[in-house]
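cache lookup: miss for this entity combination. No prior model stored, computing from scratch. Input as submitted by user K.M.:
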Amino acid sequence: MSKKQIIQSDMSSLLSAEEIAEIDAELAHVPYKSGAAIDALKIVQAKRGWVSDECLRGIARHLEMSDEELEGVATFYNLIYRRPVGEKVILFCDSVSCWISGCDDIKTAISQRLGIDYGETTSDNSYTLLPVPCLGACDRAPVMMIGDELVTHIDDEKVTALFGKAIRRAEE
Amino acid sequence: MEKVLTRNIGLDQKPTNLQAYEASGGYQGLRKALAELSPKDCQDIVSDSNLRGRGGAGFPTGMKWSFVPADEQCTPGHKYLVCNADEMEPGTFKDRLLMECDPHQLIEGMILAAYTIGADISYIFIRGEYIVATQRLRDALQECYAAGLLGNNILGSSFSLDMYVHPSAGRYICGEETALINALEGKRANPRAKPPFPQVSGLWGRPTIVNNVETLCNIPHIIDRGADWYKTLGIGEDAGTKLFGVSGKVNNPGCWELPMGTPIREIIEEHAGGMQEGYQLKGFLPGGGSTDFLTSDHLDLAMDYNVIGAAGSRMGTGTMIILDDRTCPVAMVLNLIRFFAHESCGFCTPCRDGLPWSRQVLQDIEEGRGQPEDLETLAYQVSYIGAIGNTHCALAPGAMEPLQSALKYFYDDFKQHISNGRCPYH
């Protein structure tokens, strides 16, 4: 078996055929392969929730980049996750307008209710809590995203309504 | 006042589809340009209109476009138009509204801009968290391709353009145009050294224009109705209308389209409904987190680029953040510096190491561990990190703006923290 074949068989075990097909579709829009690096990371993350070391290596080989170069790209961006996350990621806005509107107390309330701090995932794998730069909804502060949903005017009542169930499920 | 940018945006904030957009006069500017105007004509109209960039820097849009070399002045190949929809300036929420509620207005502006500069490929670089706006723009692009407004030979003309929505993987520095271009190329979003400027060598080394969402939304109206009409919209020295916003402890936080040159007092007291009961205005950032504080002494100033500049701040994005008398100015600046320190790309030392240093000094003061010499340290950081030329891009100097002006206007608050050994606000 030649060296090239080994690399190819390694690669195919690291990424699914579907992922490779989607990444290849992106390659049509870029003049060289590494130009699709961020798209490829997002494709894999959309399917798996995060980008593991194995997937990162798979993408790097497919795009003919070094692992280190791709790691530099992956870790640069806030929305590429290099660690596993829960079913839903809570992007909690802690920027200035939300802060003026009392987001620190709300963050504490959410942390207590879910039993997690920034960067952590609930024991039942429902939620991961992350801070996010200004979400651009400052007229409705404080705000956060839960998965794809923007939640505005967060107060204690909303926190209870949203996460009351979550903590009970974790206790069961 | 006549609404221009928000004429299709009702209180329900429902999106405008192609049919409704055209019924309100949409794509008239594009039809007119393709039928009657050369790219040079469009360039002249936009230059004459005195439109200035709405992303924060206020650079004249026509002048920016004029730096793109003509086809015969550069090697054959693509030219690119990129819409900067990476709205991440703290306290800024205007482009979201324009994209969610009237996506076709932005698309028409982009087609016209591309026609003017000779671009054949365009991208909307939108922040990844703007899920709704992304979907509505994609729906609108589909409508455009189906109606012959995008793709080959637009509306039967010889002009062709493809347009893509490109969601960002998330980082404040992507709003800097050369960093944005690196992100589009799949790289770390470190800003590039200039020159070469992107107009000459941008995306994939080709001529590229990067314009803010709101800037581009002005273009259809300017082309359709002319530069002279556009100039009459402003009531001060600048042309056109602008989305102004207010957040903080006001009665009615929001975003409104008003003439350029609208007095700050009118925006805060009439449109935002004034301060909430029990709160006094202590200061405000006129245009997002990287602009200098102004105070109640400045309420009668007009929101014009040069007027706000002369007062020692910047118009920025035109979305104000109010500091009230019950919110600690030291803690507010700490919040801002923490943001900028986190979002530094890490390329140059004054920004990568200087901003966390500022954050640490501010945190010590806020938490009661401040020493009198800390104020000298902060002043030194402002003078060093804040000086253009000591850093690779404008992020760190921008971060220093709220700090330097807080030291100017709220110096007693800083001193009180240090002498009392605690934050006097809680």
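stored under new cache key. The radius of gyration of chain A is 19 Å.
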